[in-house]
Amino acid sequence: MDILQLGIGTPPQRLDHLPALPQEGFLWLDFTRDQAADWHATVERLTSRKIHERHINDSFNPAHPSFSDATSDYDMVIFRSLAPELEEGEFATRPIAFFLFDRLLVTIQPGDSRSVHGVKERLLRHTGRVPVDPAGLMHMLLSTMVDRFLALREPLTLQMEEWATKLLDPRHPFDDWYLVMGHRSQLRRLEILCEEQEDAVLAWRDSARDEISEHLNVRYTDLLEHIRRVTKFALTQQHEVESLVQLHFSAVAHRTNQIMRTLTVISAIFMPLMLIASIYGMNFDNIPELHTRYGYFVVIGGMLLLSAALLLLFRLKRWF
Question: Which one of 15, 134, 236, 283 counts the least CB within 10 Å of its CB?
């Protein structure tokens, strides 16, 4: 458990023991999910408020979607954030649970959350604004998490450009469709994830126990706009994947048509030559041209002239 005390006019500080709830300012208790099986008991002793058993189970569920709920004593928000590492365009998410009391914010996180760690470091270095209540601190954490989703757009876009180059390269046929379809599935997951995040934040803001200040309400509106930007990006990328696949097959079909047209022209040129060769290959005794001195050269020359004439005709008609 990590304890931070924040207040108006005093710098944030880390505490090594759990004090009583302050009269001014508030506390932030950060628990690691795997190492704090009894976090609810600590919070109940501190606040004298009972935490619902279902909410306790939700805080330990690593597959829980983004969600919001409330009781008369506290608000609960579950928000899925990015895992620390991104491998080959694939991402994973884990839930972080927020419990908001009057002068207390409780977070239950996986333990290696970059967003939570970054906010702590920023507060303890006394850089930037300091939130004045638990809702403001939750906004700072959620905003940092959403910023990581916004940063996710660059590697996903680069991956799309790489596949676009491979799909449209006629010299190296692309056959790794599993990766492309997997990329599309990742984008679909990102779209659904953002929709759940937006619903959770909206549900909490509309049903929060304490009225949110106008200034903080504007900040949460900006946060929702950032989530919608990620949703729009996921939708746009999905459409680009579909367009890219269609463009790939169109390019393949065009290349096939080019090859077939070339083969057709070659066949059209050689068909009359084969006819001439078959005529003079007949086994008749009386073919006068066979006995002429220059018959061979005349026939070969005629065949060459015929081929050139046909090739010129096809060029003029833009068939080749």
Answer: 283
DSSP for the chain, written as a single string: -EEEEEETTEEEEEESS--PPPSSSEEEEEEEGGG-TTHHHHHHHHH--PPPHHHHHHHH-TTPPSEEEE-SS-EEEEEEEE-S--BTTB--EEEEEEEE-SSEEEEEE-S--HHHHHHHHHHHTT-S---SSHHHHHHHHHHHHHHHHHHTHHHHHHHHHHHHHHHT-TTS----HHHHHHHHHHHHHHHHHHHHHHHHHHHHHHH-SSPPPHHHHHHHHHHHHHHHHHHHHHHHHHHHHHHHHHHHHHHHHHHHHHHHHHHHHHHHHHHHHHHHHHHHT---S--GGGGSTTHHHHHHHHHHHHHHHHHHHHHHTT--
151 and 207: one domain?
Answer: yes
Domain range enclosing 58: 2-246
Same domain? For 190 and 223 the reply is: yes
78-100 confidence digits (pLDDT tens) = 998 888 776 555 678 888 899 98
Is residue 254 predicted with pLDDT exceeding 80? no
Question: Domain of 304: which CATH number?
Answer: 1.20.58.340
